[in-house]
Amino acid sequence: MRHIPLFFSILLAGQSLGANLRAASPSAADFAKLDAVPFSQVRIADAFWAPRREINERVSIPLNFKNLERSGNLENFRLAARGATNGYQGPVFMDSDLYKALEAASYCLATDPDPALAKRVDDIIALVAAAQQPDGYLDTYYTVKDPGRRWTNLRDNHELYCGGHMIEAAVANYQATGKRALLQVAIRYADYVASVFGPGKRLGYPGHPEIELALVKLWRVTGERRYFDLARFFIENRGRKFFAQEHHIPLDRYDGTYWQDDVPIFDHQNIKGHAVRATYLLSGVTDVMRETGDPRLIAMVDRVWHNTTEKNMYITGGIGSSGRNEGFTTDYDLPNLTAYQETCASVAMVLWNHRLALLYGDARYADVLERSLYNGVLDGVALDGKRFFYGNPLASDGHYRRSGWFSCACCPPNVARTLAALGGYAYAVKNDALYVNLFIQGSANTTVAGRSLTLKVTTDYPWDGRVTFKSELASPTRFALHLRVPGWCQTATLTVNRKRVTAPRRERGYFVLDRDWRAGDTVELDLPMPVRLLAANPEVRADRGRVAIQRGPLVYCLEDCDQGAPLPSLCLPANPRMRAVREPSLLGGIVVIKGSASAAADGRWAGELYQPPPPRRPVAIQAIPYYAWGNRRAGDMEVWVPLAPPTSLASER
């Protein structure tokens, strides 16, 4: 392993998480409109993601299907296919979890063909098709348990949410396999929904957004504009307080914040309500505004993104501080022990920021995507792929552990589909430009400037910041290679064919190399990874007097089992001496941060309630990546570690 600088920079977290200064509000003129390189054209062959993706395919996805069978999700479809009107199991949204599992499995079939998995997927698709009603409607809860009452509770009963996940699964399966069986189900369903909702028809929108972004995907695959128009209808009408009407609530007593139904969509000033609903909605809004260029939507998304990342995002890239509403409270309310930070909300942050990165060609959005992915999402699944977090606290007293499944099982298949589609987040293209957003060893095959290009990548990221790119071209081609310079990196350097590039051109957070490329040309991007201490904005009460440890894209934490003293007794000195050390046999192979802290000596408290603080003693500490915590014995965990108190106090006159 290369030399790791053994120094810290203590920074405000708000400055660190977004290196680019806030600019004026964007407009459609700022759109870059990049296209993602499809996941099926990206090969991942590294030591970090490849093993996780293999566990995802071999362990998590089969386990998802097993648990979906055990929990009744599949049986609900069998009942619907038989025309049964009783026997439904589970909450109203059970269908959606099966669709996410299908989506994840479909991605795997494109990158790692598996006949047994392919048959399983085809059999489930046949079951889904059999459950679809003659008019195209598909929702097993209403077909089996509550027939005749379709669309009577859009706010709570998730019909459109489930349908959206079905459409996403259908698009994924079609793109992965070329088969149209599930796509035809999705088309029939979308046509039926369009016959019910839209201008001159019924007003309404989903209580849990999702179908909006799914309809845009369906439009792009089929070319049928009416699917985009329906997504636009759902978005542009949101905030008309339809749910008050639906539930007969007087407007003067109605608060639609939880459902993002309190104000017209154009007037939102901040992130609010249920975190996953909010971010899925914003993903759909971003898709629509990419097409329409509506300045009202552009300004709203920009306002809300800044409010999210500057006042409501955890250092891990997760959002949603409160378990009470699975969402937001007030700005800067970011508790640690009670942090909700739902895994699905981190997935939604990836989805939203990926769309923004493609829309603007701006690295600050890819920075958030990376932070959420490596920390908030990856924490949601155990290293063995068998256990899952629903919420993801930033501190634990040892009683919080991953679970094998949940009665509300949205998170496990959501992580599975994210890992399976990982390659689709790494690269983007536009005419004569190729963008690199994630640094993953392997290769990408795409077309740039009308020519086929294979870009081979060699790196040990995220443990090491050196990344080598080698081009394979049939003939010389001129194009611009955009390499993201992460916001956490202050001293990136660049070489082309072993020659240092002095003062490389930089645009929107990317190094840009615009030149004639030949087969075998090699670029080396060096992103130094010093260990850093980050402080939170003082408005974040929970983190005052505390610091977090970060190296590269990874946030670190302290687990009790690694320390030389009980974790609650530890404090970091003002200038800690720490070093990054490779531990190949620990937690699947990680880089740990080793250093020293001080611990309070055990006091003698028998018969005492108060006394001077006991003396402190030096102890060794070790930090591990946050995503890896909770994989060993139960114990305390902290992301935000107290700084040592002052050694003396001035006497009061």
What would you say this structure looks like, in words?
- It is a single chain.
- The protein is built from 16 helices and 24 strands.
- The protein is α+β, with helices and mostly antiparallel strands and 653 residues long.
- The chain folds into 3 domains: 36-425, Glycosyltransferase (Alpha/alpha barrel), CATH 1.50.10; 429-487 and 493-526, Maltose phosphorylase, domain 3 (Sandwich), CATH 2.60.420; 531-642, no CATH class.
Q: Whole-Å distance between the termini?
A: 56 Å
- So, CATH architecture of the largest domain? Alpha/alpha barrel
Number of helices: 16
Instruction: Give me the count of strands.
Output: 24
C-alpha geometry: globular
TL;DR of this structure?
This protein has 653 residues and is of the alpha+beta class. It is built from 16 helices and 24 strands. The strands form 3 sheets. Strands 1, 4, 16, 17, 18, 19, 20, 21, 22, 23 and 24 form an 11-stranded mixed β-sheet that branches. The protein has a 7-stranded antiparallel β-sheet with strand order 3-7-8-9-15-11-12, with no helix packed on it. A 6-stranded mixed β-sheet has the order 2-5-6-10-14-13, with no helix packed on it.
Write the topology of this structure.
Elements: E1 10-12, H1 13-17, E2 35-36, E3 42-44, H2 49-71, H3 73-82, H4 94-111, H5 115-131, H6 140-145, H7 159-177, H8 181-196, H9 211-222, H10 225-236, H11 242-246, H12 275-292, H13 295-311, H14 343-360, H15 363-377, E4 395-397, H16 411-420, E5 427-430, E6 433-436, E7 442-448, E8 451-459, E9 466-473, E10 477-484, E11 493-496, E12 499-500, E13 506-507, E14 510-517, E15 522-526, E16 531-535, E17 546-551, E18 554-559, E19 570-571, E20 578-583, E21 590-600, E22 616-625, E23 636-638, E24 641-642
Parallel strand pairs: 1-16, 6-10
Antiparallel strand pairs: 2-5, 3-7, 4-23, 5-6, 7-8, 8-9, 9-15, 10-14, 11-12, 11-15, 13-14, 16-17, 17-18, 17-24, 18-22, 18-23, 19-21, 20-21, 21-22
Helix pairs in contact: 2-4, 2-16, 3-4, 3-5, 4-5, 4-7, 4-16, 7-8, 7-9, 9-10, 9-12, 10-12, 12-13, 12-14, 14-15
